Amino acid sequence: MRVELVRRPHPSALYGALSPFLALLITATLGAIMFAILGKAPHLALYAYFIEPLTEVWSLHELLVKAAPLILIAIGLSVCFLSNNWNIGAEGQFIIGAIFGSVLPVMFPEFRGPFVLPIMLLMGILGGMTYAAIPALLKAKLNTNEILSSLMLVYVAQLFLDWLVRGPWRNPQGFNFPESRNFHADAVLPEVISASGRAHYGFVFAIIAAVVMWYILNRTLKGFEIRVMGQSPRAGRFAGFSRAGTILTTFLIAGGLAGLAGISEVSGAIGQLRPVISPGYGFTAIIVAFLGRLNPLGIVAAGLVLALSYLGGEAAQISLGVSNKVANVFQGILLFSVLACDTLIHYRVRIAGRPSAEGQGV
Amino acid sequence: MSDTDEPPTLQNTLLKVEGITKTFGTLKANDRVDFDIVPGEIHALLGENGAGKSTLVKMLFGSLQPDSGTIKWRGQPVTISDPMDARALGIGMVFQHFSLFESLSAAENIALSLGGEVSLSRTAAEAKRVSDEYGLPIHPDRLVGELSVGERQRIEIVRCLLQQPELIILDEPTSVLTPQEAEKLFATLEKVRREGKSILYISHRLEEVQRLCDRATVLRLGRVVAHCDPRAETAKSLAAMMVGEDIHDVDRRKAVPKEPAKQQPVLVIDDLSQPPTGPFAVALRNVALEVFPGEVVGIAGIAGNGQSEFFEAVSGERLQDRPERIRIRGKNAGHDGPSGRRRLGAAFSPEERLGHGAVPGFSLSENLLLSRHATDGKTYVGALGTIKSRALTSALERIVQALDVRKSEADPLASSLSGGNLQKLILGREFDRAPALLIANQPTWGVDAGAAAHIRQEVIDLARAGSGVLVISQDLDELLEMADRIAVMSDGRLSETIPTETVTREALGLMMGGAGNGEASAKNSPMLPEGTI
């Protein structure tokens, strides 16, 4: 007996819709097995992981805090991925955005007023764009592989931040802890409903970005260009679209949104710069982008799911005593399952009776 | 496979198809189709686009399953559940749209289909032997992506022959060949026939069917309308069977413009030279050409002699060293991209439909936007770059009406259209804006007779309405039918144009082989007609 994949004549609409849920189901099943091996009761563990964080108002706020950067970054990444540009460096663009955005409150703490926050946000976007422009220009001009260059720039950004907060930007009143000074009140991104929890305006930005980007991708010529260049670069060239232009545009969008996520996180959730400001949002957002089918509206839902995996990891650490690295395991399983289930959209599984040498697509 | 071929007699049929029916939704693609093939026969399968030829062939090759009816192989009913089954029986197939991996070498492609137990070097040697034996010159070590269409087809045929089939199915094999290349292919096919093997030959070129085929089965709208001896028919009577009505001849001489030289040319190409873009791409050398309003200029040539490079240079997908190299309606365009050239009044139709002229996974209306966004920006794109989908849909309807594009739903994906219908759409989207200059590469390749005649008439009508048209084609009949002047491209050089009235097929064939312009050179053409290999 042999299992083989047979290409469908048309992509299956059913599996297109079903695939993310199937992936979640597989992830939960594998998760249950993992907890059983760890010696925890699977149903209790899954409850603690996936359900409990949703039962209290404060933790729902936490969910939005975690989802905001994931959604913002993933929307930008989806634009890149749709155009066949593999930006893996959102984590770095997130960090540089946070650093650029923090220039004002850290270096000029005396400068106050209502303009501080908008300037910080714009600086954050600019920082992310600048950093994303590096792999984009390298690819457009020199045909450099953007996967490698964008990924390696992540480590540069992380070390740069580390150096900043230990060196020039260390808080003078901070007892030598590697932290910047705390942002003053005008530099803090306010909470949406401050009475009930910490969720800040970053999530609002994420929703706005999702709607705007969905419109751009599906209803405008620019979005058309991005999709054409991703699916059929030769047809794109025939249409008169510029390859270099598309590379630059999509990287700048992704970098700008990652930068906005970075400064929102620092200004809204943390309130200062620290050596580590992200639990890997930039990488997790890749999973979010694919789980959301590279569709900005789907990404909002996917972002909430992945945010839950972070919260669940923390909850499981407290109530079950398992390592919070379980969150990473869950995310990994989820990405694998998503990609595997997506295969079903274009292929159907066939159990073949006898072995033979070659599959033939016609 | 066995060497004990039965003698080619009409008594023992190799393949017999009885009452095959295949339904897709409400469409009966094949309706009680009967026919048979005997050993040592070349059997023609004739029919328009959508007549059900591909469906029938796919069932014979195991890609589709019939709803009812039987297929008998050597008298025994068989179920062909996949292409492996078909190969095991001894059925081989050469596709119209080649199924080769471009990033692999010819030998690797062949090895893939043989199943992997044979070493690559032995496969290459075997391929070389078969290619010599049957007169099908190939280069086993070259990447397929760098090869001409003609050579890709030879690789497919060699690959098929290596599997020692009893029945070979050929889908539109000559649509990309020169007369001389086609002659060589016929010689190969006749050799195959002499060995007692059978061939199912799908073509819309009625002369070659008459020349080559012993019997013919004509399909129309999924049904067999006739079994006949093509030699006893005329090309016209065959065509009438296929279409169900008399095909009108293409009317070229409607209004030949007098003395085009007195007008300003719509296209001037001035001493265009450019280096090759890849290791096996062709350099263009001192190409010069003028196209005047009201005329159709044809460029003939064997596949892979610089036509694609020439098209990309003219369309602006590749820019020129100096702006005045290419002038469109008197304006220097050498530094403009495709959009800039379209704004000057040019329109382009590339050879590859899917992936170049159209995005396969996009709907037809979206594909309309592909070449129209720059020239008709106001019509289709609103404020803030918003796409006006309603305007696109109505334009699509207009084009579909004008060119009789047949499609299954309101706005299907480009990849779901047949080659001929997609070609009509790609050309129709350019006709629709009445361009001053149309440059079309292989406008009717793989398109059935009825649709091809329609497309040619539309192109000629465009010219007669005052536009300049440049047609690049490997189909000499097409050029002789459409063009007022013909030039030949060979090894990146373009000959002087010759008025169609004074040109002969033989002269063009020789020029295509590289003997034009007094620079006879055998070295650059492995496909030379006579005994050079």
Structural topology:
The complex is a heterodimer of chains A (362) and B (533).
Chain A: E1 2-7, H1 13-37, H2 42-51, H3 57-82, H4 90-107, H5 116-142, H6 146-166, H7 202-219, H8 221-231, H9 233-238, H10 243-270, H11 281-291, H12 296-319, H13 326-346, E2 347-352
Antiparallel strand pairs in A: 1-2
Helix pairs in contact in A: 1-2, 1-13, 2-12, 3-7, 3-8, 3-10, 3-11, 3-12, 4-5, 4-6, 4-10, 4-11, 5-6, 5-10, 7-8, 7-12, 11-12, 11-13, 12-13
Chain B: E1 15-24, E2 27-37, E3 42-46, H1 53-60, E4 68-73, E5 76-78, H2 83-89, E6 91-94, H3 106-114, H4 120-133, H5 149-162, E7 167-171, H6 179-194, E8 198-202, H7 206-212, E9 215-220, E10 223-228, H8 235-243, E11 267-274, E12 284-291, E13 296-300, H9 307-315, E14 326-328, E15 331-332, H10 338-343, E16 346-349, H11 364-372, H12 377-380, H13 389-403, H14 419-431, E17 437-441, H15 449-464, E18 468-472, H16 476-482, E19 485-490, E20 493-494, E21 498-499, H17 505-515
Parallel strand pairs in B: 3-8, 3-9, 6-7, 7-8, 13-18, 13-19, 16-17, 17-18
Antiparallel strand pairs in B: 1-2, 1-4, 4-5, 9-10, 11-12, 11-14, 14-15, 19-20, 19-21
Protein model, in words:
The complex is a heterodimer of chains A (362) and B (533). A two-stranded antiparallel sheet of chain A has the order 1-2. Chain A has one domain: Orthogonal Bundle (ABC transporter involved in vitamin B12 uptake, BtuC). Chain A has 362 residues and is mainly alpha-helical. The two termini of chain A are 23 Å apart. The longest helix of chain A is centred in the last third of the chain and has 28 residues, at 243-270. Chain A has helices at residues 13-37, 42-51, 57-82, 90-107, 116-142, 146-166, 202-219, 221-231, 233-238, 243-270, 281-291, 296-319, 326-346; strands at 2-7, 347-352. Chain B has 533 residues and is an alpha/beta fold. Chain B has a domain at 265-518: Rossmann fold. Chain B is built from 17 helices and 21 strands. Chain B has helices at residues 53-60, 83-89, 106-114, 120-133, 149-162, 179-194, 206-212, 235-243, 307-315, 338-343, 364-372, 377-380, 389-403, 419-431, 449-464, 476-482, 505-515, and strands at residues 15-24, 27-37, 42-46, 68-73, 76-78, 91-94, 167-171, 198-202, 215-220, 223-228, 267-274, 284-291, 296-300, 326-328, 331-332, 346-349, 437-441, 468-472, 485-490, 493-494, 498-499. In chain B, strands 13, 16, 17, 18, 19, 20 and 21 form a seven-stranded mixed beta sheet that branches. In chain B, strands 6-7-8-3-9-10 form a six-stranded mixed beta sheet, with helices on both faces. In chain B, strands 2-1-4-5 form a four-stranded antiparallel beta sheet, covered by helices on one side. In chain B, a hairpin with a 2-residue loop joins β4 (68-73) and β5 (76-78). Chain B starts with 14 loop residues before the first strand and ends in an 18-residue tail after the last helix. The model of chain B is unreliable at 1-10 and 516-533 (pLDDT under 50). Classes of the chains: A mainly alpha (362), B alpha/beta (533). The A-B interface holds A 10, 219-222, 224, 227-228, 231-232, 234-235, 237-240, 242, 356-358, 360-362 and B 58, 61, 63, 82-84, 95, 99, 112-117, 315-317, 337-340, 342, 348, 350, 352, 355-362, 366, 369-371, 373-374, 381, 384-387, 413, 416.
